[in-house]
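Input record (one chain):
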Amino acid sequence: MVIQIDSREKARAIRKIVDTFDQKGIQHFVSKLHVGDYMNFDNPRLIIDRKQNLTEVASNVCQGHRRFTDELKRAQEIGVKVIILVEHSNQIKSIDDVHQWNNPRLKTSSKAVTGEKLEKILKTMERKYDTRFLFCDKLHTGSKIIELLGGVSGDR
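The corresponding structure, as predicted from the sequence alone:
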């Protein structure tokens, strides 16, 4: 397995992910991807787009909605399936758990999206753009990326 990492990923933010790739003997290199953040060269039709938490997702699907959906449309046009992997606490295990999320921005903005509303938006996006929102704890992101891209993951 050889994983391409998008060059727009910040080295500091993905240090643990790269360490996991190294520990598991996964070859990897950095180069710009057309969409998403991680791709297995053996299966270029599947891309992982990593999000650091639900706050980033909420920002992407609300404030940055057009840019975000344009990227998903581009992926559809070229026949690529995108999995959005959200690094959040282990309390959010699936899209069905998003409704219980307490958006920290609700304290400062009445326009901030609630967990219930975000869950509905994400489910609509899954249907409309043939994508999936999956969740993992930050400690396991590297292993989860390997697993999703078709490799073997030793820990969860």
